Amino acid sequence: MSKFTFPESIRSRPVYGTLEPRAGSAHLFIADTEGAEAIIAMATPEIMAKGHIIYIAKGTDYEAQLRALNPASFYAGPSYGAAEQRIHKTLADAKMGLQVYLTGTEGLMGQAQNAAMQAGVPHTAIQTEHRGSTARRMQCVHCKGITEDVATDPFVCSHCGLNLFVRDHYSRRLAAYQGVCIDAEDPGNVPAPKGIYE
Amino acid sequence: MSGAEKIAVIVTDIVPLNDLVTRFEFKPIDGGLLPTFSGGAHTVVEMQDGDITRLNPYSLMSDPMDQTAYAISVRRDDEGRGGSLFMHRNVKVGDKMTISYPVNLFSLDLRAKKHLFLAGGIGITPFLAQIKQLERLGGNWELHYACRSESLGSYVDELTSHHPNETHIYYDDQDQKIDLLNLLDGQPLGTHVYVCGPKGMINWVRQTAEGEGWPREAIHYEEFLAPQPGKPFEVKLAVSNKVIQVGENESLLEAIEREGVDAPYLCRGGACGQCETRVIDYTGNFIHRDHWLEDDEHASGEKIMPCVSRFEGKTLVLDR
């Protein structure tokens, strides 16, 4: 089951929808892992004739199914970092009328949304659908380092080693949630980590 | 007092541009500096026309950073309610007038990678200020300007001589038309389109761009509606406890103001939402003309925009 219903939270927390085909001159899909299922669910031959898929599998096995949709172009890469140059180049060459569809984990959607926004796509015009892992991309507010794929709360900053509390406060500019030191007043008094949504 | 803050000005220059359009320049009476503004802003000009106070919005077309004077261009509308005729016939150099602080309902989105301007006729005026703003910022822009004829092409010479590569002129009487589909096709990602002109042109551009997959956030338009005349009607103002008559040639907002009731407003053209008024009770039909309320709000009978909308029926009670 790749779908998850996030609990309601503060306004800062991103809300994701369900991808749907829209009129456009080209269709750019950026996805990772189970995001492939969302593309397969909404793909039509008309969309895929002008469709471009940039896909990060991260160990999942959807590549053959995505290729079978016959998109105008298909790229599979090992990580967002590896795909980043291609994403920027694709957006830099794109024309108005391009529709942007993002699906998969929050970290993937956030970073790709940021790239599309920088290329001039209004963030409200970008479609998103969450699939797969609910782990988050977190920024440590103290050292500013990013820790990817955080699944527990609290967690240890992979840069400075502080124990961080996982907040729902989100930054579109950083494409990350905020992690704040949980034991600043009483060092060492750290609750046992549990799943973010447990 | 409602509306934006006021500035006392003196008319320092009047320049007829062609048969229909005249430019007016205003400087502050006290010799001070005017506020800077942003391209696309308008000012509401107060005209004392006998017993009638006319308040008409006009786009500021001077350099937004020039604090010494403001300029507007007024197209004479012989069929209109008389504001533009008053400006053309009665206003003289040296006259003292009152204008409002600039209000912008048609500002540039400075996140855009490129600004594509589409003007029809007198709709060129907000773009003149926006172009000056973008030239200062080094912005990327392109103008497509449709006019009726060479003789009615206000500011065509200035635009084509200063910005020959960015300016494209189309004359209706020479059967030149903006090739919109072709123009929209292939614009770089991050382009925003802005349209100011007649209603038909605005709808054409909005619908075509949306149909081509342009995001709504990248489509900007400005249309000031002039209040339309209609059958006289009676209104009860519940808060001020007055029953007032709205005449054939005045708007509901003007009638409220005439009776000395202070009502909020900014654009007076159905666009900004400031004058939104709650309906307490009614028997009859609304004639909604604004761009502000959603269709379901129009249908609900709970709200009215008194600057442009009217009423036909037996009773109307407003929360004012």
Task: Give an account of the 3D structure.
The complex is a heterodimer of chains A (198) and B (320). Chain A is α/β, with parallel strands linked by helices and 198 residues long. Chain A folds into two domains: 26-130, Rossmann fold; 136-195, no CATH class. Helices cover 23% and strands 30% of the residues of chain A. Chain A is built from five helices and twelve strands. Chain A has a five-stranded parallel beta sheet with strand order 3-2-1-4-5, sandwiched between helices. Chain A has a five-stranded mixed beta sheet with strand order 7-6-11-10-9, with helices on one face. A two-stranded antiparallel ribbon of chain A has the order 8-12. Chain A is elongated and about 60 Å long. Chain A starts with 25 loop residues before the first strand and ends with a strand. Chain B has seven helices and 17 strands. Chain B folds into three domains: 6-104, Beta Barrel (Elongation Factor Tu (Ef-tu), domain 3), CATH 2.40.30.10; 114-222, Rossmann fold (3-Layer(aba) Sandwich), CATH 3.40.50.80; 233-318, Beta-grasp domain (Ubiquitin-like (UB roll)). In chain B, the strands form three sheets. In chain B, strands 1, 2, 3, 4, 5, 6 and 7 form a seven-stranded antiparallel beta sheet that branches. Chain B has a five-stranded parallel beta sheet with strand order 10-9-8-11-12, sandwiched between helices. The longest helix of chain B is centred in the middle third of the chain and has 13 residues, at 125-137. Chain B is of the alpha/beta class. Chain B starts with 5 loop residues before the first strand and ends with a strand. Chain B has helices at residues 83-90, 125-137, 156-162, 180-184, 199-211, 252-258, 295-300; strands spanning 6-16, 21-28, 41-49, 52-59, 70-75, 96-100, 103-104, 114-120, 141-147, 167-171, 191-196, 219-222, 233-237, 242-246, 277-287, 303-304, 310-318.
